[in-house]
From TrEMBL, chain A:
<dbReference type="GO" id="GO:0005737">
    <property type="term" value="C:cytoplasm"/>
</dbReference>
<protein>
    <submittedName>
        <fullName>Nucleoside-diphosphate sugar epimerase</fullName>
    </submittedName>
</protein>
<dbReference type="InterPro" id="IPR036291">
    <property type="entry name" value="NAD(P)-bd_dom_sf"/>
</dbReference>
<dbReference type="InterPro" id="IPR051783">
    <property type="entry name" value="NAD(P)-dependent_oxidoreduct"/>
</dbReference>
<dbReference type="GO" id="GO:0004029">
    <property type="term" value="F:aldehyde dehydrogenase (NAD+) activity"/>
</dbReference>
<dbReference type="GO" id="GO:0006694">
    <property type="term" value="P:steroid biosynthetic process"/>
</dbReference>
<dbReference type="GO" id="GO:0016616">
    <property type="term" value="F:oxidoreductase activity, acting on the CH-OH group of donors, NAD or NADP as acceptor"/>
</dbReference>
<feature type="domain" description="3-beta hydroxysteroid dehydrogenase/isomerase">
    <location>
        <begin position="4"/>
        <end position="250"/>
    </location>
</feature>
<dbReference type="Pfam" id="PF01073">
    <property type="entry name" value="3Beta_HSD"/>
</dbReference>
<dbReference type="InterPro" id="IPR002225">
    <property type="entry name" value="3Beta_OHSteriod_DH/Estase"/>
</dbReference>
Length: 324, 905
């Protein structure tokens, strides 16, 4: 299949492009700076219609990961990349006769700060989504799913907290902060949080490309995770230990954490983007002190997919790469 | 006009208007309609009703849009012509409620049933009439309404409170189409001069009537405030909404005034006709009963049970007067009843009445030899010791001959006192000689003993006894006092020293006096019959205790099964340290001794006390609860050499009631080296069902769950497999390796649950089998492995998971003293969580286990764990101190893992 992957400079985009190419797909990647993947590459911005039309021409499928994800910037910056970029891409896909679009989204598009316990993939809701990232991603997902039609099948895939070897964002920050003794835990740190080992997120996206079709799965949003939620404290501890760091013993009461800055931003800014350290916000503390885990039954059934790498296996692999 | 009729002063007619029902919880506004009903005198009254078939003809939905005069009132509206319905359920509310009460009955209706829930005239959203209605008028009103609605074909009436009486009035006037009667917390037993309870008595007083019912909303609010826990605010608001002003509340007062407790009351004849007629109705009847109703209390239930021939009864122990609110399942239970008793024809009705015949054929003739105490009769002249008890080191012994004489005398005395066959007698006597005599004397008369396990606590026992409603209580002063304080009815027969406490405790007589009175007398002759013998209440894992009814043949079979397991021959003697079985020695024809302990608290049995009991009658067999054995092992150091030696005489030890850990059995074996240790499995409803010895447990080795051995002779065990949501609804199987609910068929299976119609149907829905609520599997050698309780099954995205196997593997770790596995999250996608008690204790307040313990527990667990939590102790039940309260633990883990404050489990 001829496939365009946008945003291939990040961990997930790069790994997905590589996985598709490895199994024989003809992959082109589109991002601002070279991804160095040895694949056919178009450099440019997803907000530039000329670039996007050129990239989409002749493609059968598009995996759309390009987005503004970091926490700094004005709402207009987010809107330009996430909403306008997606709109541009959709127009180009329709013009070029692309048949499949896998729009990579985020579980945060459907939820505010409340606890998620075995939650399903609710509809994206820009009104309730918190922060400019989630808000604009929600709008983008609604646009993408609205474009679902007999000629263009659209699927929205929402991986939750992707991590793995080569991840400088989430893993790198947790390890660095743990080493500095700047990674305290909030409250009992028992809130269950779903995460996704990168190989599994890639597997789900590849399965999504295969199943995204008018006569298969289309027009819906699916949350992807390992299906193995862990207490946030245990997850952070496992990542830190993989990097050879110990987690400080101190636990910060949730109320205190809401006021004091610490490590939350590292977890929240898990997506590829620039390196600006976002400030700790009450929203982030909430994310780290409330449960976030999902019902994976529909996803697994729709994509005929299961995570290939268990969490513990993932931690072991991470340990090997970090301590090599 | 009769002087007792209420004068119409202060009444103002108000037309009915279509209410806005949008804010009423669970009520579909589409059911709401106004109906104009012509009366015999030519006037027309406008009713508000809820009707599942309201939308049949949209033009009819709001008669306010049309002039009723356009239509011939005698001609049923086209919309209401007999529709193709299997039947109609006619629901009548009481005072001061309205059709809202029945919303769940409408919501749960099958498509081919029409449900009509009325707002009585001057009540709810119906028209306010300028004068009060009498009972007879209200019955006639209802008939006029059903005529107008064209209700033909089978009708099931449903009535609550005063609506029950009115619905019965309608039923008596529509016998040809009546197919069933459902009554909820109502009553017809209102003799002239009866004393009304609290608020009603106040309201019935003419001086206060207007103040409580009309001028203030006290009565309206009071009726909705009886529930524990309180009804949701929205429900209370909905109940009160039609009665917002004094003008709208007039009829609330009228209803109270219409309670005809005076001979010359205008409604007295109508009430008497209904009360008498109710007993002649020959249709199936269901009584739904809130057990905490201070108004229509259990006495009314007992009266209705007597009036109807063999009614089905479901008593909801925690529900109050508004039983349909406090127990929302009343709707589903009623529809299930309609389906089984009304929809299915009369031929199947008989079968439904005794739904599941026991697999073992009943003896055709029941002779003296069939009686449970036949073995005792055979030794009636034997001077050898039969019963012994040790209290404060003093041993009291009674020979078989004396025991038989005293039972006979007590039975004769009880009979002269008024005890009749079938009467229920609650036993509040600690195990020992007095209890043995009382129980066998009652059985001899044909009475039914009611036994509530002391593990229920005093309140739990009172709950149980109130639901069983004994006519007599036989008890020690302490027990009788407590039950009197907790409003358990029945005449009180004291046991033990009389005197001041006896007077305070309200003894009506005492057992010793009855025995003396009966000496030398004989019982009235009675053909031996397999009558009901016992209602047993044991502390359930969750919820209020259920009364389990046994017939004498079932008790006898149970005793025989236990005797087989204990390998009892005529020369054996039993130490009975387990409350229910302390009674069974005489029935087995062997001597039994109760050791010096508090039998209601098994953990009080010490090793020396056990040895002394063995020595007292040279016992060969011991029956003790696991908690008792645990304490015996713990106190083994205080045995004298002589006592240690005495324990060698025991050839069998039986322990039941809760799982017995292997390690405990091994230590017991060291103390009683010559005994075979047996741990039968069963439940109050079928005990015992299987048996296994320590040697067999060792041979079986570890597995998924606790191996409880093979089925006893005459017992069959099947598995009802679990589906992906952990439900056990499929057909039964005996295939090896299939996990599901354990279903047991046996001759000594219980007769039924007492006053729990829906629960009984649920547990016995596979003919001949009891659904145990336990889950497990059979192995290829036919051994049963118990994996936990059905309600503790964890439903993961990969299918159901049972807790016990996981817990065993984790408890194998040296670092872990105890473990429990629970599921968090929504059914079908739950995550498994291990809660462990570390062997080293839990010094820290941290709930997450340390990294090493976490890793070890995850490795040991056969399933993926979301979290490993640490606690200082697992929450356990009171009775056995060994059944982990997993439901409570699950709620705790749910809160904690959602990031909420959770406190201690």
């Amino acid at each position: 299949m001829k496939i365009l992957v946008t945003g291939a400079s990040g961990m997930l985009g790069a790994a997905t492009a590589r996985a598709l190419a490895d199994r024989g797909d003809e992959v082109t990647v589109l991002q601002r700076r070279t991804a160095g993947l040895g694949l056919s590459e178009i450099l440019g911005d997803v907000t530039d219609p000329d670039v996007v039309h050129r990239a989409v021409r002749g493609q059968q499928a598009v995996v759309h990961l390009a987005a503004k994800v970091n926490v700094t910037g004005t709402e207009a910056d987010y809107r330009r990349v996430n909403v306008d970029g997606t709109r541009t891409l959709l127009q180009a896909c329709r013009a070029a006769g692309v048949q499949r679009l896998v729009n990579v989204s985020s579980p945060s598009v459907a939820h505010s700060g409340s606890s998620l316990v075995g939650a399903g993939a609710g509809p994206a809701d820009p009104q309730r989504a918190r922060g400019p990232y989630a808000r604009t991603k929600a709008e983008a997902e609604l646009l993408a799913l609205a474009a679902d039609s007999p000629s263009l099948a659209v699927l929205a895939i929402r991986p939750h907290i992707v991590w793995g070897p080569g991840d400088t964002q989430l893993v790198g920050r947790i390890v660095a902060r743990a080493r500095q003794g700047r990674l305290p835990l909030f409250g009992q740190a028992t809130a269950l949080v779903d995460t996704t080992y990168v190989t599994n997120a890639v597997g789900a996206l590849v399965a999504a490309v295969d199943h995204c079709a008018p006569d298969d799965v289309h027009g819906e949003a699916l949350v992807v995770s390992n299906g193995e939620p862990r207490p946030i404290g245990e997850f952070l501890r496992s990542i830190a230990r993989a990097g050879g760091a110990q987690l400080p013993k101190q636990h910060v009461p949730v109320a205190v954490a809401r006021l004091a800055g610490a490590a939350a931003e590292a977890l929240w800014s898990l997506w590829p983007g620039d390196d600006a350290d976002p400030p700790l916000t009450r929203f982030l503390v909430e994310q780290l002190s409330t449960a976030h885990w999902f019902d994976q039954r529909r996803t697994r059934e729709a994509l005929d997919w299961r995570p290939a790498v268990g969490l513990d296996e993932g931690f072991a692999e991470l340990t090997r790469t970090l301590q090599r | 006009m009769n002087r007792r009729a209420r004068r119409p002063g202060g009444h103002v007619g108000l037309p009915a208007a279509k209410p806005d029902l949008g804010r009423c919880p669970d009520l579909d506004p589409a059911w709401s309609r106004l109906v104009d009903v012509p009366e015999a005198d030519g006037s027309v009254h406008r009713w508000h009703i809820l009707d599942t078939h309201a939308d049949r003809d949209p033009a009819d939905r709001d008669p306010a849009d049309r002039d009723p005069a356009d239509r011939d009132p005698a001609d049923p509206d086209p919309a209401d012509r007999p529709a193709l319905v299997a039947g109609t359920m006619l629901c009548v509310h009481g005072n001061p409620t309205w059709s809202f009460l029945w919303r769940r009955f409408l919501a749960a209706a099958p498509a081919d049933w029409r449900v009509i829930a009325v707002d009585q005239l001057s009540m709810g959203w119906s028209e306010r009439l300028p004068a009060p209605r009498t009972l007879a008028e209200r019955v006639a009103d209802l008939g006029a309404l059903t005529d107008r609605l064209g209700v033909t074909g089978p009708v099931v009436t449903v009535g609550h409170d005063w609506g029950g009486i009115i619905s019965l009035g309608w039923a008596l006037q529509h016998r040809e189409q009546l197919s069933g009667v459902v009554l909820a917390n109502t009553g017809v037993d209102l003799p002239v001069g009866s004393r009304l309870p609290g608020l009603i008595r106040l309201a019935h007083n003419p001086m206060l009537l207007d103040a409580t019912c009309v001028r203030t909303p006290a009565f309206v609010r009071g009726a909705a405030a009886l529930s524990h826990p309180a009804l949701p605010r929205a429900v209370r608001a909905a109940l009160a909404e039609p009665y917002a002003t004094p003008a709208r509340r007039q009829a609330v007062g009228d209803f109270v005034a219409d309670i005809p407790l005076e001979t010359d009351h205008v409604s007295r004849p109508a009430l008497e006709a209904i009360a008498t007629g109710a007993g002649r109705l020959d249709v199936p009847a269901l009584l739904l009963w809130g057990g905490r109703d201070p108004v229509f209390h259990d006495g009314f239930l007992a009266d209705l049970e007597q009036r109807f021939s063999n009614p089905d009864v479901h008593r909801y122990p925690h529900a109050s007067h508004l039983v349909t609110e406090d127990a929302p399942r009343t709707a589903a239970d009623t529809w299930r009843w309609v389906q089984e008793r009304v929809t299915q024809g009369p031929r199947t009705q008989d079968r439904a009445r005794r739904p599941h015949p026991q697999p073992a054929p009943e003896p055709v003739t029941w002779t003296q030899d069939d009686l449970p105490w036949a073995a005792l009769l055979r030794r009636a002249d034997d001077p050898a010791p039969a019963a012994a008890e040790i209290r404060d080191t003093v041993t009291t012994t009674l020979s078989f001959a004396d025991l038989e004489r005293r039972i006979a005398a007590t039975a004769a005395g009880l009979s002269r006192y008024g005890l009749r066959p079938g009467d229920r007698v609650a036993m509040l006597v600690p195990p020992g000689i007095d209890l043995t005599i009382a129980v066998y004397a009652c059985w001899r008369i044909g009475a039914v003993i009611v036994v509530a396990d002391a593990g229920l606590g005093v309140r739990g026992m009172a709950h149980a006894l109130r639901s069983a409603r004994p006519r007599y209580l036989i008890g020690i002063t302490k027990g009788l006092l407590a039950m009197r304080a907790l409003r358990v009815p029945g005449r009180r027969i004291g046991v033990g020293a009389s005197g001041a406490p006896a007077v305070v405790g309200g003894w009506d007589t005492d057992l010793a006096a009855l025995e003396a009175d009966g000496r030398g007398r004989t019982l009235p002759a009675r053909a031996p019959a397999d009558t009901e013998g016992a209602v047993l209440f044991t502390s359930g894992a969750t919820g209020p205790a259920k009364g389990v009814v046994y017939r004498q043949s079932q008790l006898k079979e149970q005793i025989a099964k236990v005797a087989d397991i204990m390998r009892i021959g005529p020369d054996d003697r039993l130490v009975a340290a387990f409350a229910p079985f302390a009674l069974y020695g005489p029935a087995m024809g062997i001597a039994a001794v109760v050791p010096d302990m508090d039998v209601t608290a098994p953990g009080t049995l010490t090793a020396p006390a056990l040895a002394d009991a063995v020595a007292a009658i040279d016992a060969t067999v011991v029956f003790a609860a696991p908690a008792a054995l645990r304490n015996v092992v713990a106190t083994a150091d205080s045995l004298t050499p002589v006592q240690s030696k005495v324990l060698h005489r025991v050839h069998t030890v039986l322990s039941a009631g809760a799982p017995v850990p292997l390690a405990l059995l091994r230590r017991v074996q060291q103390l009683l080296p010559d005994a075979e240790l047996h741990t039968p499995y069963g439940m109050t409803e079928v005990l015992p069902a299987t048996d296994i010895s320590l040697a067999q447990i060792e041979a079986a080795g570890p597995g998924d769950g606790v191996c409880v051995g093979t089925a006893l002779p005459g017992v069959s065990i099947r598995i009802s497999p679990l589906d992906e949501l952990g439900r056990a609804d499929g057909p039964l199987t005996d295939a090896a390796g299939v996990t599901g609910e354990i279903c047991i068929s046996a001759g000594h299976r219980k007769e039924r649950y007492d006053r729990l119609w829906a629960t009984e149907r649920d547990a016995s829905r596979n003919p001949g089998f009891h659904r145990s609520g336990d889950v497990g599997h059979l192995d290829d050698q036919g051994r049963l492995w118990v994996e936990g309780r059905l309600q503790h099954v964890i439903t993961t995205a990969d299918g159901p998971v049972t807790p016990v196997g996981i817990e065993q593997r984790i408890e194998d770790l040296d670092r872990v003293r105890a473990a429990a596995a629970v599921g968090v999250g929504p059914a079908g996608t739950q995550q498994v969580v291990a809660v462990v008690v570390p062997a080293s204790g839990s010094g820290s307040r941290r709930r997450l286990a340390d990294p090493d313990l976490t890793a070890a527990v995850r490795r040991a667990s056969p399933v993926s764990l979301a979290a490993v939590l640490v606690v200082a102790a697992l929450p356990v039940d009171i009775r056995h101190a060994s059944k982990v309260d997993r439901a409570r633990l699950r709620r705790w883990a749910d809160r904690l893992l959602a990031g909420e404050r959770a406190g201690k489990p």
